[in-house]
Amino acid sequence: ARATNLGSVDTADQLEALLELAREAGLEVRSVGARPAVAGEAPPTSAVCRVRSAVWVVLSAADPPDRHIAVLGEALRRHASGFLEDRFLPPALRALLQDPLEGP
After folding, report:
1. Roughly how many angstroms between the first and final C-alpha of the chain, as a whole number?
2. N or C: which end of the chain has fewer CB within 10 A?
3. What is the mean pLDDT of residues 30-57?
4. pLDDT confidence of residue 91
């Protein structure tokens, strides 16, 4: 599903739309495996981080799609809000990107 065609969508379509938006906004999206880098450590988790001047969104295979959606939403809200303001987003996608602390 394209971000411009979302109505009511399932998790896979939400994730695809957010990945597309993140890339269009210039965020670096990386995937990492579910295995820990060092034996005995916890598996990697999805997160947003800054590497030099770039914002990276790291999505771990150990995390469920809902966690990927939450991390992508956080990254877009915090690091691409201007990009989002100037862009038409279907209501279902805009609702996903709303800050959960602000409410509807």
Report:
1. 24
2. C
3. 88
4. 87
Q: Residue 30, SS3?
A: strand
Report yes or no: 61 and 31 within 8 Å, Cβ to Cβ: yes
Q: Residue 37 — φ and ψ, nearest 5°? A: -65, -30
* Strand-pair category, 47-51 with 54-60: antiparallel
Neighbours of 91 (CB within 10 A): 10
Residue with tokens 């996608």: 93
Radius of gyration for the chain, computed over Cα atoms and rounded to the nearest angstrom: 14
Pairwise pLDDT comparison (102 vs 65), residue with the higher score = 65
The reported pTM is 0.81
Q: How many residues does the chain have?
A: 104
Task: Report the percentage of the chain scoring pLDDT > 70.
Answer: 86
The token pair at 19 is 């990945």
